[in-house]
Amino acid sequence: MSEETPNWSVPPDQAAAQEPPGAAADELPQEVARMTFEQALAELEKIVQDLERGQLDLDAAITAYERGTQLKVHCEGKLREAQLRVERISLGPDGRPRAEPSDLA
User: What architecture (CATH level 2) is domain 22-90?
Assistant: First the structure.
């Protein structure tokens, strides 16, 4: 029996169609929306571990999966924000890095 983790990734163009209701970033519960990336990722990792152990009953597993989906969406949003900020850092004429104003306000 293989210990490999199955590849559950979905192509980006199909991901939005497969997200459960309430998974959109603007529909996240306030408690999730207020989390830092690190807090959300830590909770998501715990949920994944719990689900992988297979010791949750069906209702608890579904609830954990839904929460995990919300945390995943939140983490992806935080990563997109960080990527935009990093992309705004450029080299000036003198070759030194400079930060340009971000449109994320």
Answer: Orthogonal Bundle (1.10)
